[in-house]
Write a structure and sequence with these properties.
8% strand, 9 strands, alpha/beta, 19 helices, 414 residues, 4-stranded parallel sheet
């Protein structure tokens, strides 16, 4: 492509339409002014993350150029992707954008699970293109955030003074950052997990807050960057060097943006036995890998090691690890089109047999549990024996999070 203007079809008026959703149309004049400022797109980022290396327009131009130049339209990405099966191949998607005929809401129906990226024989990153389109349309005011109000309120509360907590002992350089969902869904298991980590990590600190991944995935990068910059600055001021995560989404975000941090999963620590771990009550399990761990084999192996050490026999699903299916929650798709969420959940559960399903994402448990028995790994490890703990749901989850904060702050958890 000779220029960003030609690449993006800036002389054509984009068509933004989605029935039933109120939206603000981006002015062609505004697009021309913003998009015409650069002529050197930033090289594509690694498929392992979405972290922008430049501004939104430059990144989108680079992603478009990569797909339009190198995609062979072989269809490998569409084979298992419900989104691409309904819409178009990545090349056609990029072409529609440059012609100004792409519905601005179309990228928001993608789960951003990156299965397309994992299976592309040309090593392209279609998921990255979809995400950059989200960022662009959100920046231009071409989509409404109204459908996501509940999700964004949840995100804001997670980082508010009501729910956040920095509990750091003297000399602490390693902290556990469990994320929002786990404390709400499995509070007792989380507190036991903290105790188990304390046996393995001296002077362990605890941070309760939100990584703002919902805003990141929606393309609300101004908000996300402000939250992430504040978190990372607080880590630097407190001389935190290692961040331990339990939430796959938090792990993905801090791996991408926390360049000064060593980010490790709790399962790397728990996979080292202390000698007094009891066997789990469930021994035959099918395991579901959350899509946020698609390119994190260290987490996948850590979880399996933990289960093996507890006497579990794990059956691998056909689509697992790098080629795992999304549970349906990814990309906040369910907030604008619940049919995608339902289809992904059914597709995931369709590969399971009679065994209970185990996973290590609280969001996956919430999404899949209405269809079949699903356990969180930490629930199996630290929950009451011979008892299936159902994940709590709102508003109980908010009360659980306040209780966890109180326990950590006042009951000598650290």
């Amino acid at each position: 492509m000779d220029s960003i203007r030609y690449l993006l079809g800036l002389d054509r008026q984009p068509v933004y339409h989605d029935p039933g959703i109120t939206e603000t149309r981006a002015s062609p004049a505004k697009i021309q002014t913003v998009m015409g400022t650069s002529t050197k797109p930033t090289p594509p980022a690694s498929k392992h993350h979405y972290k922008p290396a430049g501004n939104v327009e430059e990144e989108l131009a680079a992603a478009l150029d990569d797909i339009l130049t190198n995609c062979t339209q072989c269809g490998a990405c569409r084979r298992d992707c419900l989104f691409l099966q309904r819409h178009a191949l990545p090349f056609e998607f990029a072409e529609a954008f440059t012609k100004g005929t792409l519905d601005a809401m179309a990228p928001f129906r993608c789960s951003l699970c990156r299965l397309c990226t994992a299976v592309c024989p040309e090593k392209l990153d279609p998921s990255r293109l979809i995400w950059h389109m989200r960022c662009y349309f959100m920046q231009q005011g071409a989509v409404s955030i109204r459908p996501y109000r509940q999700l964004l309120a949840y995100e804001r509360l997670g980082g508010s003074r009501l729910f956040d907590l920095f509990q750091l002992p003297a000399g602490c350089d390693t902290v556990f950052f469990p994320g929002c969902a786990l404390a709400g869904s499995y509070p007792h298991a989380l507190l036991h997990a903290i105790s188990a980590l304390r046996q393995r990590v001296a002077n362990l600190g605890i941070i309760l807050s939100c990584c703002a991944k919902p805003s990141h995935d929606l393309g609300r990068m101004d908000y996300f960057s402000a939250v992430m910059d504040e978190l990372l600055d607080s880590f630097r001021r407190r001389r935190i060097q290692t961040l331990i995560t339990a939430c796959p989404s938090c792990h993905q975000v801090f791996s991408d943006y926390g360049s000064t941090l060593t980010v490790r999963s709790i399962y790397e620590y728990l996979s080292t036995p202390t000698g007094d771990e009891p066997a789990t009550t469930l021994t035959n399990l099918a395991i579901h890998d959350p899509c946020a761990t698609r390119f994190h084999p260290d987490i996948q192996q850590g979880v399996r090691s933990v289960l093996y050490n507890r006497g579990c026999t794990v059956r691998e699903l056909n689509h697992r690890q790098e080629k795992t299916f999304c549970c349906g929650e990814g990309g906040a798709v369910g907030f604008i089109d619940s049919s995608y969420q339902k289809m992904w959940a059914e597709k995931r559960c369709g590969e399971t047999g009679n065994e209970p399903l185990v996973t290590y994402c609280a969001g996956c448990v919430q999404t899949l549990s209405p269809r079949r028995p699903v356990h969180h790994v930490l629930e199996l490890l630290f929950g009451p024996r011979n008892t299936k703990i159902k994940p709590a749901r709102p508003p109980i989850t908010y009360l659980n999070r306040l209780w966890v904060k109180w326990k950590i702050k006042n009951m000598n958890i650290i």
